[in-house]
## 1
Amino acid sequence: MEKNKYWNPFLETLPRDELVHIEIKRFREVMAFTIKNCPMYRDKFKEVGISPEEIKTLDDIRKVPLTDKEELRRAQECGEPFLYGKTLAADLTELCTLRQTSGTTGRPVYVPDTYRSWQWRVESYAALLYMMGFREIDRVFIPFAYNVYVAFWSGHYAAEKIGCEVIPGGGLDTKGRIEKIREVRATASFNTPTFGLHMAEVAQEMGINPARDLTVRKMVCAGELLSEPTRKRLEELWNADVYNQIGGTETCGWAAMCTEKKDLHVVEPYFLVEFLDPETLSTSVKPGEQGVVVITPLFFRAFPLIRFNTNDLMTLAKGDCPCGRTSLRIEKIIGRIDDLHKIRGVLFSPLSVEEVIRGKFPQILEYEIVVTRPSIMDEIMLRVEMDPTIRKEEFEGLAKSLQQQLKNVTNLRFELQWCKPGELPRYTLKAKRFKDLRS
Amino acid sequence: MRKKSFSILEIKKSLKKIEAEATKLKKLTKGIPGVQKNIAPILAFIDILKFHLGDLKDEE
């Protein structure tokens, strides 16, 4: 067994009641801090009439109102200082970084950090990377220009903190990035699932087999939902251990797979994470059930969050993990509640299509789901780009099998449309494979 | 939980000393940005060190 398996062997193996005790104490601290320093929370808690002294158990925490993204937007739009409005809990002169959300669902949320607060983001991400097996010996290639988005910045600094060599891969095209991985013999990489698949495809076009010719043996995937079949496909393509990791700009990375590669561990006690009943949002779900994830980062101070509703639906795992960590675990990520669509009265998650395609149809290189409503009924079309080595005669049998399997999983009938090689867009960060054209 | 092969109490004492000295240094060096800016990271990391060990109970 590895000598130093844990980032902190004591905290990571604490009995659950002790872990919860620490988190409740830290929750009280961050709540008291926000009342003193953050106008948004000061106003909110005053209105509700709740104080940190009342918080003694997890049930007490449920009395504290949730925070959602729209509320953060509103608080940033009104008042001073510019950009941060009432969400800022630090002096402007102390700030050292500014990141933001992508703004795909409205005005971006701007996330400031002081040096001190930023170090907490780096620290909690370092704990995640360590859990995923990143070590001093690793040479980590990050094939992105990080821009104003936090994900790879925290990953970059966290890998440095662990002692890895970090190579930023922005400003190169995909071929250039593959060449750089080969040139420096990178042993690890950060990726999005979509870009990991795309890089493997481009490498093969260049005559490079990533599994054989490249040295990446660890890959963290974030930024998009990663289905288990896609994770396994990436492992085959790269001959690497591929780890799922989740987080967001507001919260930072807060859960990831350990080297068992089964469930995702919440990185406790950096975060207090609740899994709430999707209907009521007022009680916790039991292991094995699906819950909406609500997060309180316990150490971020410049832009504090208390009970942030991620709107993500996930299944809380049962039992223990063989790795020995006692943290809460996620068995399955169902998706963002906003990403579930009603089609012909059926609740549909695009992730179910991803699971079928990546799990059972490796001949399909790329796909796109298009929903329309030409008259009364919704129509759902799957546009498919096949591996060019597949013969046309095989298409019919494949189409039947694909339609049947999609029907079994989604209870919906899909029309199929074959696309030419390269016709469908390739994505690097957030893939948009679902298009709802219903007006 | 892992058995601790060290004294949490000693560690907590040591952290407290470092924090007190860094805070003192910060006060003494007002007006010297080059020093002030290098103390800030020390205080940030003391915060994290306290997290790693500060909540543990001593078994001795």
## 2
Amino acid sequence: MRPFPNKNGQKVKQRLSRDSKSRFVKLFFGYQSSSIFLVLIGLILLFTFFSKYRFSSVANIKVLLALGPEFSIIALGVGMLMVSGEFDLSVGSILVFCSFIFIRLFETGINLFLAGFITLGAGALLGLLNGLITTKAHIPSFITTLGTMMLWRGMALILSQGFTRPFNPEVLPLFSSILTGKIGGVLPVQVIWFGVFGLILWVVLHFHKFGNWVYATGDNKEAARAMGINTDRVKTICFMIVGILCAFVAVSQIARVSTFSSRAGDGWELRAIAASVVGGTSLMGGIGSMVGIFLGSITIPIIENGLVMLRISYFWTYIIFGLVIILSVLSSIYLKRRKLRHD
Amino acid sequence: MRGSSTDGKSGKSLVKMVNIGKWFGKVHALEGIDFEVMCSEVVGLVGDNGAGKSTLIKVLSGYHLADKGEIYFEGKKVNIASSLHARKLGIETVYQEQALAPNLSISRNIFMGREPAKSLGFMDKKSMDRGSMEALESIGLHLRSPGALITMLSGGERQGVAIARALHFKAKLVILDEPTIALSVREAQQVLEFIKQLKREGISVIFITHNLYHVFPSADRFVVLTRGEKIADIQKKDTSIDDLLELIVKPPSHN
């Protein structure tokens, strides 16, 4: 809303500067992702002060930037899937199963890039399976992915016998530095990957036709179908995106810790859903934005890390998660009502 | 009481359904229905619940396949196999409540599934917004912004958006399934205005409803169904609301 010049230009300008503050506030609160942004800022300030600045120490921020993106990347995909109206409880299990595939490929001695791409393909396939079972058999994805969650975790456990397996990043230093290196020796490259995935999904969800189909499918499946959108295909592609992201994180995590562990990704499924909900995504589908999902996906690792920095018992984590989820949903409802009133 | 639908006054035939039959298992949903709509004609399709109105329309919009009979569109025999096919011919159906995604903007709804794209499938939002406003204005609906969410609109405005969508995509025949149900008096009146506007634009309309007081002023001709059969096909000048009501509630007979 730029003021256009007119005879009373002077006057308009004056009034604007007086109103610009309240206008900014109104615009800010009208924006869907404002509540999560405030929650995030609040948490960061809280953790910074109460941890006596341990939270904001360079060492901790480096850890946070290297570890956090692993979870956050997956949460981005889960958020988009939720906009299409489906859930994925199997993300942690897809991750661990893909980890196992990757470590076995590594053990055969094939080129690591090839192994990485095969693992991505496997992740896409596992996502495809979730999607096909859900859409073709008309089973709620909550049930489908509850099944595949147990199935793939179980497969990983049986095949690995629960043992850890070593990975040697020295085999191909380029591979490891692309996934887990540090830019300028400081900034963990995982952050860049997270940013890139976030940017791609943002562009797809908000500017591409496919994004409109995702929203329409989640918001009113019958209407979307009546308008010729293949809602089954839209959902299945969203499941596949989640699978691919899980596989990517599986590979990058192994490169970082140099070990396969059958506990990888344990408990991430509900946290990923929580991240999306905190970011303003509706459990019913059709509502949500990539900016909100992005902020929500950062919130969860920040809470985990912040509590450690506060030296609070790990057991408190769940209580804080619970409070943050409920508070952010309440505040977004409040902002939505406020917006409707003001319009 | 049978009127004639082939007096040719309204011009050329747009769609002609001949001897349509449809069974659901052993239930005879439609039997021997002949149904025709002329160019820029508004036809009121009336009848009680379960009379077969929706089934007939679903055959025409590609949702159901008829078990018997033929359909001619602009004189050519067609086999409407899907809703996509129906839309390609120029038949747009506006189902109430099912037509729009409530949490999406007006322009995203109007172009849902048919988004104009620049390169690589990225939406051309400017042309979507412009097209939306033009379509809305062409049916006389003046809304503030193409970015407003459907939830913020009144029931009448929602119907308007759905009708504007049909108009934008060059529909030749718009089928309105109970467009005034669940609307306030004022909103229903607004929808009736949209229908008049469609007729002025040269578009044919099939108006399905229970409410004779809504359909009577807007339609040129009425087709009455009872238990899957056509019992009357009559021009407005040859009938009245009371006559139609009597036809609807009268038990079916074959004389």
## 3
Amino acid sequence: MNQNISRRGFNKLVLTGIAGSTLGAFGMATPLFANQKHVVVIGGGFGGASAAKYIRKLDPSIAVTLIEPDSTFYTCPFSNWVMGGLKAMKDIAQTFDVLKNRYNVDVIHDTAVEIDAVNHSVTLMGGKVLNYDRLIVSPGIDFKYDALEGYSREAAETVMPHAYQAGPQTELITRQLQELRDGDNVLICPPGNPFRCPPGPYERASLIAHYLKEHKPNSKVIILDDKEKFSKQGLFMKGWERLYGGMIEWRSASMGGKVLGVDTKAMTVETEFGPEKGGLINIIPPQVAGKIARDAGLVDSSGWCPVNPITFESSIHPGIHVIGDACIAGTMPKSGFAASSQGKVTAAGIIRLMQGKVPAPPSLVNTCYSLVAPGYAVSVAAVYKLTSDGIVSIKGAGGLTPMDADEDQLAEEATYARGWYKNIAQDIWG
Amino acid sequence: MLKQVSVWAVAGMIATVTLTGCDSGDAGKTSGVRAIEDEFNPRGQILALSCASCHGTDGKSVGIMPGFYGKSQVYLENALKQFKNGERYSTVMERHAKGYTDEEITLIAEYFGWACQQTTN
């Protein structure tokens, strides 16, 4: 029997092992042995933190440095719950203590400002230069503020939040909602595809309506969409009708939903059918890969990063892997779950490469819960594999909550949504 | 009974047998029928890593999703196949399980079943 053979997949970190002798004994930064492999990860969100943790978990002989500007990372998943008054900011706050202390990831709170793909180094804003054997770039998204006339970063930070990166933006929109005058409308303006979290704006509309129903019953939510259809549309619309009557109105791009610009003083958005006034205006601008990916030349003309679908290694710069929202991952959506799944696949792939072995073919998953009201959630799931067409979802698997799901099933999904958040947060940062 | 029978042989016929994991008896030892080599199967690993996103790292759940750390290979394989065939009620697991071949389910069960083997031997 082979039961005594150590298998890294389940090993707790053995601090007396090779890794323990080089890492973290005094909580200090990692002094690298000349022959120790070093992976640098840029970005401590769903993708980057997953990759950092899983490299250290699966092969503690590899040193990992994680670059993340903030000491607290607020998750976009569940940030709509904060707006709806169902969660507090502390409930969506993740920290890096476990990655540092248990997994001995060298976490540096700084911003990566330059990647030298030829010499394999990363320069931080603070001046430090890190050398890497392999680099993982997981920078998330940036916004194309100039896509809408009158909109800007400053407008987002003061008047018309995007609230599509959690943190201060979540607090701003939540405060605006609380201060909204009963009878004034909330405008939510989602972009065209592709963008982060396709069902996000519609869960947001749901939970804002939930709040309005209780606190400002004369207000309503108008979604001015840049698309003709949206994620989980049938399930959302059924839920809206059941729960909120006419409180949520969705206008497709061709039915006056297309937003051309904004007037931050008049608090209006300009559509092809004329101006629309809002007491709270949530502009979710079109998006591109995060700045460092663009600056490093990792993007193609789409603004996103093409990658090898087995290891997520950049098709442009060898030795650099791009994961999460920034990468082009076949038919996978840009979601936290997908980013984490990609982070783990990339971790396993990098380990195989560093061991001189062939990486296993990727297997990826996405599951996305959307809360329509407390006790009422819908989900979409997919399992992905690599084919000659790239990463595609497997036919016959995955799919949506059934349209005829009864109340018990929808309530069960809401319970599982909460359970999902706890477990994925634990799997990434815990 | 199960400990004398190969997992491979019984996998198809144990749909009605309920095993709750290593602590239920012999299940753990049955997973020894397939030799685990010095390294885990990399395909099994890649397939299995997805599960942790909802069920916790190594299947150690901290939320309402059932944890499966320490469950036997037989139990896991059986459960996944029941989800896949719609024989076991679920909200989302059937949608997931249908994404894997029976061979892949065996690899996933083998990967996580390893922990069970460690705890019972």
